[in-house]
Write the structure tokens for this entry.
Amino acid sequence: MPKKDLPCQECGGRCCTHAPFHMREWLKIKEKFPVGEDGVVEEVFHGTRAHGVIVWKKGTTKQCYYLRDGRCDIYTYRPSTCREVGKDGICAYTDPDEILRRLNRLKAKGHTFLCEGTQWQT
């Protein structure tokens, strides 16, 4: 499948929220790009192989601290979580078929969803 441009300007970087940085990557990033007083570093998945952090701006809904004017401020150094987004040319946040596929995979793993006013059909 040829790589295609993703509609990143259309959604404003929705994939740049709640994006965890693996701990070993975070240790390198924070040295080069320290977080100021306007940022929050929150540990996630503590005690698991996925242990890491979410780094977000205060006053946002956990939008990545390094997202500036809709662009990644640390693009060259971005963590693997971010490098995987759109690698297959599909935006998981704006492509309805991909959203449904991911929802079904999570449901198959036993996750449940409560969406007020929305009925998910699979």
Q: What stands out?
A: Residues 9-85 form one domain. The CA atoms of residues 19 and 82 lie 7 Å apart.
